[in-house]
Design goal:
With 787 residues, the chain is an alpha+beta fold. Among the domains are: 56-254, no CATH class; 429-467 and 641-787, no CATH class; 495-616, Barwin-like endoglucanases (Beta Barrel), CATH 2.40.40. Helices cover 53% and strands 19% of the residues. It is built from 23 helices and 20 strands. The strands form 3 sheets. A 6-stranded mixed β-barrel has the order 3-4-9-6-8-7. Strands 13-14-18-15-17-16 form a 6-stranded mixed barrel. Helix 2 (16-53) runs antiparallel to helix 20, helix 14 packs across helix 22 (749-775) and helix 15 (448-468) packs antiparallel against helix 22. It is elongated. The model has no long low-confidence stretch (mean pLDDT 84).
């Protein structure tokens, strides 16, 4: 081993504590980068392969009814590469293990031609065959939740008719990678499933023989998707066609795209923060090493080592730390990535989701960490390179001591001698103090994010199910019902209060922006399903104009007073110009709201309703559910308590993982920053501290001099850290806010107190370690003259 490399090994062994502290901070940033980039590669790669292999459609359109002969004209649209027409609708399931019915959607599979798009992936069994039996393939998530296997059967209500369907296969479709029930925030495979049946049998059930009510299209390479959708809209308009949309408007595809986008942003923001702090720590440590080794540098140059060789020797300090941090960060990132991949498997239904390490991210992470670290230490190395041997042989000039600002203000009597010494040293080395404060600021900020997210979820649940949706049950009808349907719902066992709603699909346009939404009519005095403002106050439906969700208003770029073009996609399909009178707060999807009577007048309808919100007497609960199972016109049933429990269970698991990771990072950063700063201070001031011991200061008083500095820096960093955590959380919430789901931003005293407690405990742990080192000082060794 070369002499300089041997010296490097010895120096690193003496400062192994600092080296490990810096490497751990660096590892945190690299771990986040490796985890996020590997998840992007795993999820994105699996999705792309699945979409391509099973020919996921690019354009979708729903309609009322069109003859199968129209398929030929659809295929002739310029730019269309493939077309599949199909039948789709809702069904309700009567499961023996559940008192309440489960909901689902069912799609047809062609039986007189090969399926071209949205091909099924069969996990078990076979496809349905033509015959008298109602044979179905069931989605894997629903089958797994209930233990269904090929050969099982279940009672189902399909378009008002009760039938026994026979499960012949368990499968997946690229159309339902994210199996979300309409109107819900997260998947609930126990209460919602997807089914596939042969077209002839399903057409008979839905009274659509020789017809279809759904179209999926693949677009030829280079073709204009907007032109294809416009032609599709024109052709299907006479048949009740709704506005066509592409993958960006498809719920499952949009959810996947949003998740990948968030991971990409996450893989940039956090690593930059962590690596910057690690660079500060490396710079401070190496600067001190060079100052202590002035004489060694002079001797090396005197023995013939060039300035470049000396500079490269000290750069290796940083590279060793980078290498150690990269190894630790890569291992931690790969472990976290595998953990999150298993979580993703519960949300996204794919034939396979193998964890794929992003080796390029590992290489880029190493290069990025090396670049930032070298940038941080280049100044210290330059000092070593340009130091003339004759000057280096002389001891470093002693630091200039003077009374601190605290003392110059005449307040010295309020502080002990140890505290005054600590204040003087902090004022003498402001840059070192600043770097320590920056590191502690980041450490304080990190645990605020999971704490605030946990508080926000608690608020969201209270907002959603205690304030906005106060009903026990929401019923939806197969077809819009009249006033007699509302009366029949009110006569169900145990129903105490009924509030109808009317929902129609619509396209909202403002200038060049547009969105497909559900336009919902609600009563002015609604007490169950309510719309609320940002303060949680109920907002009455306006007699003129409409209300938009804050996210929809932001997407369209509208403000109160603007007029929006509303193209209703149902019934007489009126085109309306409606003024926006305000916005409301919600956390899922995009919504537009009108007074129910106003919407009915626009639709030229009487007392129609799409469903109703109900409160039910718990004493009649079982009887109510039994009656709902028998009602043929009810398409779906949503029980608020079940939806809330499913949301709480799912988000609770996710938040538990995230809180654990962030807590680990906060402890590592705080311990690392405090320990690194204390070790530097101890190496710089060991002679001074030993002198204090010799002149009569007790070990406790000597320890107090150094720890007082660190304690003051910690306390100074806390308010900056709390502010930084507030801003970091706002940034992350903004980046994770999508049209599909959003989280409120909420900070509580508990969140801030928890972050402060983490930092104080981590700092106390570092203080204990440093205190022991101070008490173990070799007084004679450190008092020897340096020259």
């Amino acid at each position: 081993m070369r002499p300089l490399d041997l010296k490097l090994v010895r120096d690193l062994s003496r400062m192994k504590g600092q080296m490990i502290a810096v490497a751990l901070v660096m590892a945190c940033g690299l771990a986040v980068m490796v985890m996020a980039r590997s998840l992007v590669l795993s999820l994105g790669g699996s999705i792309d392969e699945y979409y391509q292999a099973h020919r996921f459609a690019m354009v979708f359109s729903e309609l009322k009814r069109a003859p199968n002969t129209l398929r030929t004209q659809l295929e002739r649209i310029p730019g269309v590469a493939a077309v599949d027409t199909r039948i789709t609708g809702a069904l309700r399931l009567d499961l023996p293990a559940m008192k309440e019915p489960a909901d689902g959607v069912i799609h047809s599979l062609p039986d007189d031609r090969p399926q071209q798009l949205n091909l099924l992936f069969l996990r078990e069994g076979r496809l349905p065959e033509i015959g008298d039996r109602y044979e179905v393939v069931v989605s894997e998530a629903f089958a797994r939740a209930h233990g269904f296997r090929p050969g099982d059967s279940v009672e189902a209500v399909i378009y008002g008719a009760r039938e026994r369907v026979h499960i012949v296969g368990v499968g997946l479709s690229p159309e339902f990678v994210y199996e979300l029930q309409p109107g819900q925030m997260i998947p609930d495979p126990k209460r919602f499933g997807v089914f596939w049946m042969n077209e002839r049998k399903l057409a008979s059930a839905f009274d659509l023989s020789g017809a279809f009510n759904s179209v999926v299209v693949d677009i030829a390479p280079g073709a204009n998707a907007q032109a294809v959708m416009a032609a599709l809209d024109r052709l299907l308009l006479p048949y009740g066609g709704q506005v066509a949309y592409d993958r960006s408007g498809h719920v499952a595809s949009k959810q996947i795209a949003d998740e990948i986008r968030q991971l990409v942003q996450f893989s940039i923001a956090f690593p930059v923060l962590f690596l910057s702090v690690a660079a500060f720590m490396t710079s401070a440590a190496l600067t001190r090493v060079i100052r202590l080794q002035r004489e060694q540098i002079a001797q090396l140059k005197a023995f013939g080592y060039s300035s470049a060789a000396v500079g490269w020797h000290y750069l290796k300090f940083a590279l060793v730390i980078v290498l150690l941090g990269s190894v630790l960060g890569s291992l931690l990132g790969l472990w976290m990535g595998q953990l999150m991949t298993e979580v993703y498997k519960r949300f996204f239904q794919l034939p396979g989701l193998p964890f794929r390490p992003d080796w390029l991210a590992l290489a880029l992470g190493f290069l990025g960490a090396a670049a930032l670290s070298l940038l941080g230490v280049i100044g210290a190395v330059w000092q070593a390179v340009r130091l003339p041997p004759a000057e280096a042989m002389r001891p470093e000039p002693p630091a200039a001591f003077r009374a601190s600002l605290f003392e110059r203000l005449g307040l010295q009597r309020l502080a002990s001698p140890t505290l005054r010494m600590a204040l003087r040293n902090l004022e003498r080395k402001p840059w070192q103090a600043l770097f320590t404060v920056l590191g502690l600021t980041l450490a304080t900020a990190i645990p605020i994010l999971p704490g605030a997210m946990s508080d926000s979820i608690d608020y969201l649940m209270d907002f959603q199910w205690n304030q906005a949706q106060r009903q026990d049950v929401t019923l939806s009808l197969i077809e819009p019902g009249s006033a007699s349907a509302l009366s029949a719902i009110g006569q169900l066992p145990g129903v105490m209060h009924v509030e109808p709603f009317r929902s129609v699909p619509a396209r909202l346009r403002f200038e060049h922006r547009e969105r497909r939404v559900s336009l919902t009519g609600m009563g002015r005095d609604s007490q169950l399903g309510r719309v609320l403002d940002v303060q949680g106050r109920a907002v009455a439906m306006p007699l003129q104009g409409m209300l938009l969700s804050e996210k929809l208003a932001d997407v369209l770029g509208v403000s109160p007073g603007d007029t929006v073009l509303v193209e209703v996609q149902e019934g007489r399909r009126p085109v309306l110009e409606v003024m926006v009178v305000g916005s409301i707060t919600d956390f899922a999807g995009l919504g537009a709201y009108l007074d129910i009577d106003v919407l009915r007048r626009h639709m030229r309808e009487g007392g129609t309703l799409s469903g109703a919100h109900l409160t039910v007497d718990k004493a009649y609960w079982d009887a109510f559910l039994a009656k709902v199972k028998e009602a043929p016109r009810i398409a779906g049933l949503s029980i608020s308590a079940n939806v809330r429990a499913s949301f709480e269970e799912t988000t609770g698991e996710m938040m538990g993982i995230m809180q654990g990771i962030y807590l680990l990072f906060a402890v590592i950063v705080s311990c690392g920053v405090v320990y690194n700063g204390a070790r530097i201070a101890l190496s710089e001031r060991s002679r001074e501290l030993a002198t204090l011991r010799v002149v009569g200061f007790t070990p406790r008083e000597v320890t107090g001099v150094l720890l007082s500095e660190l304690a003051m820096l910690t306390v100074l960093a806390l308010p900056f850290g709390l502010y930084a955590g507030n801003q970091l959380t706002q940034l992350m919430v903004e980046l994770s806010s999508t049209e599909t789901v959003r989280f409120p931003l909420l900070f509580t005293t508990r969140t801030y107190a928890s972050a402060v407690l983490v930092i104080l405990l981590s700092s106390a742990l570092s203080f204990i370690v440093i205190g022991r080192r101070i008490r173990q000082l070799d007084l004679l060794g450190v008092l020897k003259a340096r020259d």
